[in-house]
Amino acid sequence: MDTLSLSLRQRQLIHFLQLRTTYTTGEELAEHLHVSSRTIRHDIIEINDSLKNTSICILSKRRWGYLLKADCEKELKQLLHMTTSFLSKEERVRHLAFRLCLAESNLNLYDFEEEMFVSRTTLEHDLKELRASFTQKDPYIKLIRNKTFISFEENERKKRYILNHLLSDHWNYSSTGTMYSENFYLDAKILRLIIQETNYYLAKYHIIVEDINMIKLNLAIAIMYYRIISNHPVTEEMELTYVDSEILHPANCLLNSLEKKLNCSFGTEDRKDIYLIISCARLLDAKKLTFKTVGQYFDPSILKLTDAYIQQIQQNFHIDFSANEDFYITILQHFRYLSLPLHYFNEISLQVNAVRSNILIELEIAYSVQELAHSYYQRYLNETEILYLAFCIAGALRYYNYTVPKQKTVVMCHLNLPSIWDLKYRILDKFKDYLEITELLPIHMKDTFDFSDTDLILNTSGKEITNDTDCHCISISPFFTIEDQNNVNTHIINQQIHQFYDDSLPSSLDLLENGCWHERIDTQDWKYIIELLFSDFSENRYVSDNYLADVLQRESILSFSLQPSVTIAYSMKASSKTVLSIATLEHRIKINSHKTRIIILAAFRLEERTMLFRLINELLYSGANLNDSRFLKTKEEFLDFFERNLE
Fold first, then answer.
1. Is residue 3, in this structure, part of any structural domain at all?
2. pTM tops 0.85, yes or no
3. Which key words are in the record (predicted)?
């Protein structure tokens, strides 16, 4: 019983029953939880299904009601612990938002304390988080409070926006819905009907939308239906700032069909929200988009933004994407989407740190769009928008890397020919796009073979094969294990990044050696550390005053901390000198879920901006286990660590 997949209401039901020693009627439970008796019966079936491998169940007796029964006291204690601490902060805020959106009158804070088993202090913190989520940003709904009573302002369109957000968040693509949509608000049959009709009409009129927008559209229609039948139509007038004329007829056909099948009527203002969602969601036909035709489909300002960004990448990072038509079209679509009134993205929250750590270079190139974005959109892009742009860059770099010659590789193995032949194809199965195996050799030939035309040696002996510094050597097992594959993959990434900076740049070790060091700083304040390191640059007048603000803003949007132990922070604003300032910490601090021991602040001359790639490559992608540096606290220890791993 490590986890229970139960809704908020089901956990409340368990908690209510465990306080009773006699049967409780379904009507009493329904009244307590503000639902129907039918819903109670459905919940108890699901609870018993979740508890089927335990000694616990909810007994059902006709005309008597329900009773919680447990044969094992230890399991019961565990269950009660789980159900009395059943709400995380996120769940409590979601529950508050749901109740406020659906409430017919003001809600009493005392009722929330009892419902969620929290103190008034905790509830006040939750209300603060609620305001941050929905009153201080879209949809900017007012939270009205009168002593112990709270309510949302009477704005139906804003309430529907919040409901859509809550129901679509963490959508389960393996089924239809989320815990909240399945157990709290939507009827599965109604939702399936809406999904079926939406799919039919969008396909009929050749309208293609991304999955997240299809979810938003289906939920918007479902929410609209439920709110209208409960006498809550949209009354606030909205001027459509953007509408795609090609979607009006298909949208009306869809809504007219649903009116008949659901026996309801969608008003003019209600329909406007559906028009807007479909207008913003409709993807352009990529088959029609080429270098020659983009002027027919994209606003001149989007074309100008895209051209400026591709030119900026070439100037700052010496990477030319201008001839890649597929990349150009994809970036145009992304920038166009960001310009529309509605643009939703699927969050990648569960794997985001793992994803980001594999595309560090792409993220830096993507983040460099911010000044252009601010000029065009009058705002900076957020983390998710930057991450999706980084995916575009990653795809373009893969294409770019395919045009680079493969690394000439020699495989040396101490086993007999059949084994080395098998090893060859194990390697090619994983890395045929990057490696060209030119020779299969026994180990003893290491002293007689000419490696002058070899980029990489994979050998099974663990011995030093050659002193040629231009030839990299990796020890592997004859069976090419997962660890071997990871080591080879790290080497390939390292070589790919290497091509984006010149060897004439200062070495990372030299910059570290000559940097300003602050050892064993005893603080948990990230901002204080950055300000301390910045003072080294400021006192020497290497950077302008806005350098610090740029670093702090970047951290607030897209954290610098992507690997354990070592964090490299920086601004791309030009410095009069390429220089580092470094702080080692007495106690590690947690930044973006990573525990950090050393923080490196970097500033670059305009001509040496690609030095950032070298730092990332040599300090973060060297193949070293950065966790091994978690106990180091001095300049001498860190220099020794980095030097050993860069040999």
1. no
2. no
3. Repeat
